[in-house]
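Handout for the seminar on molecular recognition.
Each group receives one record of this type.
Step one: identify the two inputs.
Step two: read the structure output and locate the region that could contact 6-diazenyl-5-OXO-L-norleucine.
Step three: write two sentences on what you found, then compare them with the reference statements printed after the record.
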Amino acid sequence: LGPAIRYAEQGFPADRRMLLGLRFRRKAAEASPAFMAIFYPDGAAISEGAVVRQPDLAATLRLIAEQGPSGFYSGPLADRLVDGVRAAGGIWTRDDLRAYRVVEREPIAFEYRGVRIVSAPPPSSGGVAMANIFNILSNFDLQDIAGADRSHLIIEAMRRAYRDRAQYLGDSDFVDVPVALLTHPFYARGQATSIRADVATPSESLPGIWPAGQKGTNTTHFSVLDEEGNRVASTNTINTWYGSAFMPPGTGVILNNEMDDFSIKPGVPNGFELIGARANAVEAGKRPLSSMSPTFLESERGVAILGTPGGSRIITMVLRSALAWINGASAADMVAMKRFHHQYFPDTVEYETGAFEADEVARLTEMGHTLRESRRPFGNMNVVTWDFGNGRVDAASDPRGLVEGRVY
Ligand code: DON
């Protein structure tokens, strides 16, 4: 925690990306004077280059450094968190915090073309969805298929996996998530037979939940490898920009808005336009369904550690970069490649400018896909690769992390 305490105490200069997020959260922040005081001194967003100091947060982090989790979930800091939330009309209790436990669950592990892939288990949907997509793709000779035909197969696999995400996935402590079935190659073979090589399957033709009415983001991922070969893929989220933009006074802690990761009603889309069902309904003590997918790829070639923010698009970003690595891509290629995404509903292929050639757009449209060029780039991926052949270790950060503009 040392570096984090130092940054909180001594401050760091506000950059452009921060300011864009602050502009986006201005209205929500008005409910939180403590948040306003740090990020909107004098009522306007802090200016670019100004130093952001967070003394309350530094004290909070110090307490955690000294006392561990109990310094946060009980004692005077917990009291300040609960009092701050209740004073603003919230319903937290001291017991909620005291009873909170981190739960460790077995990761999801599977194989694709000789590569062992290890990723996040429920309550993230990432590992299950990726296992399902890779298993579906195993039924095709993807290496020999190019252009629109290849993209089409990947999109159809994405569509089917996200349908199951909407239908079945939620906190496995509360609902019976059929993980073994959903990640089984035989199940994927059945799904693969429903894919036509030349025509998009309308999402509405798949049984499941449909969106109730149609409508319309920060997270951080670290990939770490040490000199002994130990590795960490870690994605952390408070959901959308600045979470709920609410800070209980005297704590420096910005609260998340992870409730948006629950399905509030079957078919009602969340902030990422994801729909869900009972499996991911709100219940006391239940964890919301995530898409975070910190992932390891392991094969004779070596190891890749990857992950990204990006809400619902995380899974498909990790998936396509994994596919690229399996086909020989470097860490730099993996973070830079143009992205496309399908999530069952909305029944559209969202893509970054440049992800498809013009003839691919035409061909996919002809097949019946609805394409939507994204107004913002996807994600902020961090990758570390280790090549066993030459011993080389490469690290690459997403060029999108440096560009201006809103990023998913
Ligand atoms: O866990 C999830 O799936 C979301 N809370 C992640 C949100 C996210 O990545 C926002 N970042 N751009």
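Reference statements: Confidence is low (pLDDT under 50) at residues 213-217. The CA atoms of residues 342 and 349 lie 5 Å apart.
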